[in-house]
Amino acid sequence: MDIKTKTMGIKTVEQKQIVTFPEGLFGFEEYKRYAIIESEYNPFIWLQSLDDEKLAFLIVDPFVICTDYEADIDDESLAKIGVKSPEDVIVMAILTIPTDGSHITANLQGPIIINKKNNLCEQIILSDNKWTTKHDIINALKTREGK
Fold first, then answer.
1. Full set of structural domains in the chain with CATH
2. What does DSSP assign to residue 25?
3. What is the model's pLDDT at position 132?
């Protein structure tokens, strides 16, 4: 399937790359269908809306940013997207990138959970206040690399 993207022109995606958020993302509830597309900026991935080509988010595995990251996901959230086993879940964080490219942050308080068996997703709010919606990923990566 060919889709129009915000940053990459027309891309061909396979059905397995398409995910559905039955309740949408916070602030974008009307947009339900997205494609997961590899980015040229590893380890980041594009979450491209199929409902609006101008809507796309960069997402990242939060465990890449914070090796001590923990997402205590409640059973109700897992059940909403049909998760039967913890091994079926992929956790991702949405990035915020200012127009000048400085101070890139990740929303670790409100991760996305993806059921890799059925490609249903949900954005949740973690009850642990250790994580924020504006986690500085540049500093986190520098700290992780010991620089």
1. 2-146 (2.30.290.10)
2. B
3. 92
How far is it, in rounded angstroms, from Cα 21 to Cα 30? 10
Please tell me the predicted confidence (pLDDT) of residue 40: 86
pLDDT (average), residues 16-32: 97
- What pLDDT, in 10s, does the model give residues 67-95? 899 999 999 999 999 999 989 999 999 99
Q: What is the dihedral of CA 56, 141, 92, 125, to 10 degrees?
A: -100
Rg (CA), the chain: 15
Q: Which single residue is written with the structure tokens 């504006």?
A: 134
The Cα–Cα gap between 83 and 93 comes to 19
Quote the CA–CA distance of 106 and 132 in Å, as a whole number: 8
Over the chain, what is the mean pLDDT? Answer: 92
Paired tokens of 72: 């205590």
How far apart are alpha carbons 95 and 107 in whole angstroms? 6
What predicted TM-score, i.e. pTM, was given to this entire model? 0.90
Beta strands in 39-141 (DSSP E): 45-49, 56-60, 89-96, 105-106, 112-115, 121-123, 135-136
Query: Position 104: which residue type?
Result: I
Kindly report the backbone phi and psi dihedral angles of residue 31, in degrees, each rounded to the nearest multiple of 5, phi listed first.
-100, 115
